[in-house]
Amino acid sequence: MMNSSLIRASTFHIPPPLQCTTRDNVITSPNYAIEGRNLSYSITTKQGKSVPILQDCSITIPSGQLWMLLGPNGCGKSTLLKVLAGLLNPTHGNMYVKRPKSFVFQNPDHQVVMPTVEADVAFGLGKFNLSQDEVKSRVEKALDAVGMSDYIQRPVQTLSGGQKQRVAIAGALAETCEVLLLDELTTFLDESDQMGVIKAVKNCLGGDVTALWVTHRLEELEFADGAVYMENGRVIMQSDTKSIMAVLKERISSYSDQINL
Ligand SMILES: Nc1ncnc2c1ncn2[C@@H]1O[C@H](COP(=O)(O)OP(=O)(O)O)[C@@H](O)[C@H]1O
Ligand SMILES: [Mg+2]
């Protein structure tokens, strides 16, 4: 059940679009890295029935910031992230996400494909026709940004889960990704590994890089510039972290059986 306190005017805040131009299904907006307007996504069952997964979701993430996406299990966080990543096509709505963009999956073992850290970060650069020096320089810079420079020659199978996630993020940075869409990266990690990943992400931001981070860990909110809260396929609230935290704390007891907050 939806709690009316969640939608009171003081905390419900989705800023109006800035100067936007709409072209086909795309919005372009200068100050936001991510903008989704009234996004819906439905699946069709074998019986031909349409089942809504996302309904009328609007989300606006300023450039250069880290925002969290929170909500109970099954509320649609991963689906919204995949729509923003372009992995799923929205059924309705408009969106704009700066490019290049990269989606990083939850399971660290699904991220790394090459035998060594250096080869893995360089893997995605093959398509750019870069000189060897340029590849080397991008790999080193990206590993430095995620605090993994000392591991450049290490076999990836010797890394912890969090280190693998940082290598995956370095791969995205090496490709000069401007938007990182990060889906519950810290779920399988212990506390120190978790902190390593979130600090690495923080260190990459500002300038041209923006991150949207799906999490169920409330303590990660303190690293964020703002947060978006979802329930039942809808964006209920987008706000600063303090306001989100206050509302979530009110609600913890009412849905602690559904969400690990
Ligand atoms: N391809 C699909 N087929 C059927 N149901 C789906 C599919 N993708 C997502 N869902 C359902 O949509 C809801 C939202 O899923 P998801 O986005 O993974 O939620 P979250 O990431 O918040 O846990 C869940 O109830 C899930 O079972
Ligand atoms: Mg998910």
UniProtKB/TrEMBL annotation:
Signal peptide bounds: none
Organism superkingdom: Eukaryota
Domain ABC transporter: 34-257
A Pfam family recorded for this sequence: ABC_tran
One GO molecular-function entry: ATP hydrolysis activity
Any single biological process term in GO: transmembrane transport
CDD domains attached to this UniProt entry: ABC_cobalt_CbiO_domain1
GO cellular component: chloroplast inner membrane
KW Lyase (keyword) present: no
PANTHER family: ABC TRANSPORTER I FAMILY MEMBER 10
UniProt protein name: ABC transporter domain-containing protein
